[in-house]
Every structure is written in C-alpha cells, then in structure tokens.
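User: I'm putting together notes for a lab meeting next week and I want to include a structural view of one of the chains we've been expressing. I don't have a solved structure, so I'd like a prediction I can at least talk through. The sequence is below, exactly as it appears in our construct file.
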Amino acid sequence: MTSSRDDILYGILKLWQPRSGARVNVDTVLLAAYPDFTVTRKDKFAELGSASGAVSLLLAKRFVNLHVTGFEIQKEAVELAKLNAVENGLVTQVSFLEFDIRNYRSIEAQSYGGIVVNPPYKSVESGRVSTRSAEAAARQETACRLEDVVFASRWLLRSKGHFYCVFTANRMSELLNLLVNNGLEPKRIRNVHPKPQKTASVFLLEAVKEGGIGLTIEPPLYIYDENGEYTEELKKAYTLDGLPSALRKRSNCHN
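Assistant: Thanks for the context. Below is the predicted structure for the 255-residue chain, given as structure tokens.
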C-alpha cells in the first residue's frame, strides 16, 4: 500500500493515508465535526471502520477527556492509524485495533458512551464491486452490511449512549428503520447539499440508545454557495469547534 502524508483541517492533524481506497474527504470532516456535547469526565467512544484514523484522532483533539478506540478490518490501515496516533501525540487518547465488527459479541456489551461511523454507502447489489479490496471495503458492503453496523452499535453502546454517522441520503429510510427497530432513537438529522437548489447527497445523524421519541431536523448544510465558494457553515467543520447542535449549547471542550 502506497501512502501520502497530508495536512487535515489546515494542519491541525498530520495524517498518513493510502493513495487509493479510504481517504479523508468532506464527509469524513463533517462526521468528526458533528458530535456536540460536554465531556465532563473521562468517557469512551468507538469508531467502527476507522481506516487511517482521521475521525478518531480529530475527536480526541476536540474532546480532551475522551478516549477513542478505532476498529478496522484492514491491517494496513490499522498500521497507518497507529503511526498517526504517535505522530500527532495522541497515543494516550486513541487506540486502534484490527477487528471485524461482525464479531462484536466478543467485546463486552455496553462498553462505550458513543459510536461514530461512516458506513459504506453502496450495497453489494448496487453495482460492480471494485477489484481493489481496500476500495471495495470503503465504498461497498463487502466487509460488513448496514445492519451489522447497527447491531454492533446496539451491543457496544450503553443506555443513553450516542450514535453518530454520515451516510448517503438515498438510503436514509433504510438506516432510520434499522435504528428504530434496534432501540437507537434518532434525535437529530442534518441534510448536506452540494449547493443551494441541489438535492441532499448525504446526511448527518445522531441517535440515542433507549432515548425518548423526538427528532429535530436541523437546517440544511450547503457545501458550496451560489458562487462556488465554501459556505461559512462548511468552514466551521474545518475547525476544532465543529458544527454546533440545535439541541445543545456549545461548550469549549478542546485545548
């Protein structure tokens, strides 16, 4: 696997990542920016499918009392993620394990207060599968299906634990149905549009295990404005403050 060392969030994070396959993109940044809460004591999060570690490492930078464990099935990606934890001085806050999340029952139940995940957007039935295993795992459900992600999250989260994800908009109903049927109650959704007048391409979601019914649809987030420039709201995602929630007041949790 050939890799490159790149600046993420304008140099806030230095990241080794593969030149092909799972690389940081706007969706990655939005997922890391979406969790919005106050960490008043040490807590544990898990990232399912952590790739080279960008989301886990950015969360650790945003929330100093958070320990994040990244679970990733690809050995080469885990090795890069561990290197990234060392180079960014985050080895006490972040750890990475080579693990197939379909084996989630081998982990103690209710171990985590939160989970973040960027599931593969395409089902294996949706088209030709890439011949590159790393690329296929990142984009299509060759390593796990959407239901595996939800089942693992239900098992790993404690009661009232938070589930965060970014996912393709054309499969929203599928994900919502799985979450509700597995006791993960959707609490807020934010649709992400390439620009005004365009339909949503992805959406950000927060759900709570055993949470009460009540869903907030937040204002849409546009990546580009009508002039083709990044919107001010999108630029917030590229800071450690992240995207403020409509449900909570902001709290300064990072250094």
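A couple of points you could mention at the meeting. The first strand starts at residue 3 and ends at 8. The radius of gyration is 17 Å.

User: Perfect, that's what I needed.
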